[in-house]
Amino acid sequence: MLKTRQCLLGLRTFLGVASRIWGFILYILRKHLRTIIQYQTVRYDTLPLSPASRNRLNAVKRKILVLDLDETLIHSHHDGVLRPTVRPGTPPDFILKVSQWYELVVFTASMEIYGSAVADKLDNNRGILKRRYYRQHCTLDLGSYIKDLSVVHNDLSSIVILDNSPGAYRSHPGWRVEKMEAVQLDTGQLGVFYTGDSYIILNKHREGAELHMWIGEESSRDEQCACAMLATQLDQFLGGDAIQHRQEQGHETEDFLKLFPNGVSYKP
């Protein structure tokens, strides 16, 4: 009877230890599987465009897609050896796919010796990523590198950005609301307001940032609502620290008018 109890106790102890070991093995397997799924490359079927689609694309102005590298297209670190890890759903298939629709430009705040090596690896001798801009093309402002898109193209409305760091483009301070979307203004357009439109003007300084919503006297109610919504989205896009102001045509504040050294003009 005593031996039977000892056997049962030993069996229970064994089963308890085996259960813990099996649970630990399952935990390691799940963790390893999650890692494999997280970093596996998603591949797209790259099919040729139909004649109809190609004709439509040829009939419209080809836009420029500005691509950032680190934390956008890839994850990488440098400890003496360049070891890029490709983010799921990106190179090589992503670049090859979107190159059918856009002119691709690499713009990174990384040093050229690093960014060039990564871009070469992503391009893979296909000549897709010919245009490249690096840290020397950026401006150091308040400890951050700002990317000047005017070096890419003088018409900012033709540029599409894919970048994990929106603050890198905060040197572009003006947007006009067109068809419920915010369209960036060229530097020469700042201070020129159409009375039937609404605008968003960004004023950045050491204490923070301010977003001014300029409302034309002939702008529609829908456009004014869109301007407020886009200003809120832009505020979140820039980190949520900007103070928002409403400026109505003919009743602008002095602080707002000081943002335009050449003065403000209205156009019908």
Automatic annotation (TrEMBL):
Keywords, in A-Z order: Actin-binding, Mitochondrion, Protein transport, Transit peptide, Translocation, Transport
Membrane-related topology note: Single-pass membrane protein
Record carries keyword Transport: yes
GO cellular component: TIM23 mitochondrial import inner membrane translocase complex
Residue intervals passing through the bilayer: none
Database matches in InterPro entries: ADF-H/Gelsolin-like_dom_sf, FCP1_dom, Gelsolin-like_dom, HAD-like_sf, HAD_sf, TIM50, Villin/Gelsolin
Coiled-coil blocks: none
Domain named FCP1 homology: residues: 58-212
Pfam families cross-referenced by the UniProt entry: Gelsolin, NIF
Entry's localization field: Mitochondrion inner membrane
A single GO molecular function term of this UniProt record: actin filament binding
Top-rank lineage group of the source organism: Eukaryota
The UniProt record lists the keyword Mitochondrion: yes
Gene Ontology biological process terms in this record: protein transport
Xref: PANTHER family: DULLARD PROTEIN PHOSPHATASE (PTHR12210)
Job of this protein: Essential component of the TIM23 complex, a complex that mediates the translocation of transit peptide-containing proteins across the mitochondrial inner membrane.
Subunit (UniProt): Component of the TIM23 complex.
Family: Belongs to the TIM50 family.
Name of this chain's protein: Mitochondrial import inner membrane translocase subunit TIM50
Organism annotation: Hemibagrus wyckioides
Lineage: Eukaryota, Metazoa, Chordata, Craniata, Vertebrata
